[in-house]
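User: For my dataset I need records formatted as: sequence, then structure tokens, nothing else. Please produce one.
Assistant:
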Amino acid sequence: MWIRPSAQRGSASAYRAWLDGHFDAEGGRQSLADDPEAEPPLSEWLHSWPRPPVGADEDDRLQALHALDVLDSSPEKPFDMICDLAKARLACPMAAVSFLDEHRQWFKASAGLAHKMIPRKIAFCAYTVFLREPMVVLDTLQDPRFERNPLVSGAAGVRFYAAAPIVDPTSGHVVGSVFVLDTQPRESCDIAILERLAYAAGENLPQRMEISALAHEEAAINAVDLELERQQGSEQQQLERPEREQVDNDLKMPTSPALSSSTASLSSVASGCYSDPASSPSKPKSPCSSSDSDADANSTAMTSLSMGKTASGEQMEVLLMRLLTQNTETQQQLAVQQISLSTKLGQHTDQINKLMSDFARMEAKVDAKVDSKAK
């Protein structure tokens, strides 16, 4: 038995007319294959169960879904909590938070299910996405859309299904569903629980995108920081190498003519100043007058070497200051991003806690009603 929350019960013929108008297997317009190969044309649909319908805005819906970047993403605590709450509150052995793309129904979070996805062509939630409304099937064997579906007729033996659509707040499109399954048929279902959980899942979509964007940005900043450190080390080595080479060259360099002349002059001065008077001429030469030009040449050479080392040191200081400034700016950007990320995570936690509190109050009210009826 299937219950459409907004539909009025009527005659069997009216129900059949409504069913034919909304779930005709020939009404789908797009491939629902679970692999890259295209499904056969509609006229060649070879399966024994009706083909799930596809909305007229399917292209826009898929574009909105892919923009969320949620498919094949890692598990996230909010969606895991929503799945666990659905399973516990409705007392079902199987539950999931799912998203429906061109070829598959992918489970962002699941409990009691062996696979991470199923082909779209057998997905019950294709109807939920198409209807944009909560959906309850109390007994799948009594529903012509599902009685021959492999999930019902196969080893899974699904007999009960309930789901609520997940709406993307940004685009307004239905991108997935929160659903539960059971292997036993039921007589009733409180669909309001799934509606609230699906709403919470939809509200988490833009927040997870912001958190993901911040995480990517932080990773990019860290990569830039590492690259700056690498470049800083490389430039430091490049600056130190010429200085080491200069020192080595100075140690290995042969004596220059000017320095030789200076040495000779000094020797001459020493010779003139300390020579034996007996062997010296009657008029010894003045040591100062003989070495003036050589001393000037030696002074010029030493000054040039000193200036070269000073310029190299100044260049290194400029580069180090520039790298230090860039590193400081990067650290400031990281601090701002981390503060923003912490704020978002705090808001996220508050919303989850509020959701848990709301469900606790709802459960208490239900228990109170059950107790009052029992008395």
